[in-house]
Write a structure and sequence with these properties.
Blueprint (H helix, E strand, L loop, with lengths): L1 H16 L1 H32 L5 H20 L4 H13 L11 H37 L7 E3 L2 E3 L7 H32 L3 H45 L5 H29 L15 H10 L4 E6 L7 H22 L4 E7 L3 E9 L13 H11 L3 E7 L2 E9 L6
Parallel strand pairs: 3-4
Antiparallel strand pairs: 1-2, 4-5, 5-7, 6-7
């Protein structure tokens, strides 16, 4: 029973001894400090405007207006929101409470919070200064020689005033609980008044989605460019090693292909790393269908026989379409090398008036050339096609693997 009683007492005293309570008290005292210049200025204004009337009510009214209006106006300044939000997070222990302070609705909420902070802080500041001194005075009343007037009644010294020290302790405890209560209420209200609004959360979700999309795009760029180069290098190095002594001319050709593929891969890697470091654009332009001949040449040097049929004018394609189409062809050739080996590839690229058609066909490899799982090749191609509102089909049929891509060149309704 005694243990339970002790736990109950500790539970009652916890708000008074908790470190969070006194951190929140510091936050309220900070509001009192901020209130001081406004209070002094309002008293000066009240004296100037109401001095000739001799009416204390007029003076009080003017002083209150001169106090509250500047505080409300100050709270409308966008910079107040991050200041108050940071203080609330560090001293009140509130969660992330800094939203965008520029919209007028957010400014109004911030102004209300700022005004409440200063006024509540002013009350707590006055109590913090006056109450301890008053309690000390209550302790001395029983020992005085003369009667003491408290509010509306007079207290005689001696045993009749012995209840005053106890009342002083009660006042101190009540003050401690008031600090805990006001601090807890402020902690609950801070995320509501200072936290991100629905528009802030939507903007943050959009920023995260944009960042994720950019990371995925960079991952595709690295996968397509560096992956293709490494496939060429692997095939060429293996072939050159097998005929190193028998066919020096082929070895020189293979080394030239390795050099060219590695150089292009380094350029692409430098470009992507420049984007990751947020450097100015221009480290290396992304390749388009204008560079298709070089891609086909390095792939042929790897031992892949390519029958390329190009219809129309690829140079007239929009830059985004041309760039993605180059990566689609590059990834298709990389997949062929990786899954089927050095087999003949038929590439058809047709630039028509309303669409771009890309088709790649190669014989199935010895393992059946099942590319549906594991790698990022086909998913990467599909992502590029989807972004351009195109259509893609890929799969085996009649002993061949076929990739067919159609990308529209006009917007719907044009």
């Amino acid at each position: 029973m005694g243990f339970c009683q002790d736990r109950g007492v500790l539970r009652l005293l916890r708000p008074l001894i908790a470190l969070a309570t006194w951190r929140r008290w510091v936050y309220l005292i900070l509001g009192a400090a901020l209130l001081t210049p406004y209070l002094i200025a309002s008293m000066v204004v009240g004296s100037l405007l109401a001095g000739g009337h001799g009416d204390s009510l007029i003076y009080a009214g003017i002083t209150v207006v001169a106090l509250v209006v500047p505080i409300v106006v100050t709270g409308l300044v966008p910079a107040v929101r991050p200041m108050e939000g940071t203080a609330a997070r560090e001293l009140l222990g509130a969660p992330e409470t800094i939203g965008d302070g520029r919209p007028w609705r957010a400014r109004l909420w911030t102004s209300g919070w700022f005004t409440g902070h200063l006024l509540a802080g002013g009350v707590m500041g006055v109590l913090s200064l006056g109450l301890p001194a008053g309690v000390v005075g209550l302790f001395t009343v029983p020992f005085r020689e003369h009667s003491t007037r408290l509010l509306f009644f007079s207290v005689r010294p001696g045993w009749t005033a012995s209840w005053l020290p106890a009342s002083g302790l009660v006042l101190l405890v009540a003050f401690g609980y008031s600090i805990a209560g006001v601090g807890a209420l402020s902690t609950r209200l801070a995320p509501v008044l200072l936290g991100p609004s629905s528009a802030d959360r939507l903007a943050e979700a959009e920023r995260r989605a944009t960042t994720l999309a950019e990371r995925n795009r960079l991952a595709r760029e690295l996968h397509d460019s560096v992956g293709h180069a490494l496939s060429i290098v692997t095939v060429q190095a293996g072939a050159a090693a097998r005929v190193l002594d028998a066919d020096p001319a082929f070895v020189r050709q293979a080394l030239a292909a390795i050099e060219e593929s590695a150089r292009h891969a380094l350029e692409d890697l430098d470009h992507v790393l420049g984007l990751l470091r947020e450097e100015p654009a221009g480290t290396a332009p992304q390749r388009t269908l204008k560079d298709l001949d070089g891609l086909l040449r390095t792939t042929r040097m790897a031992g892949v026989e390519i029958d390329a049929q190009v219809e129309g004018e690829p140079a007239q394609l929009p830059a985004a379409v041309s760039r993605e189409a180059f990566r689609i062809v590059q990834e298709g050739l990389t997949n062929t090398l990786r899954h089927a080996g050095k087999v003949p590839v038929t590439l058809r690229l047709a630039v028509l008036s309303e669409r771009l058609e890309v088709e790649m066909i190669n014989p199935l490899g010895a393992r059946g050339d099942d590319r549906r799982g594991g790698g990022r090749g086909l998913p990467g191609i599909r992502e590029r096609v989807t972004v351009l509102r195109g259509q893609m089909t890929a799969g085996p049929g009649d002993g061949h693997w076929r990739i067919s891509v159609t990308i529209p060149l006009r917007r719907a309704g044009q």
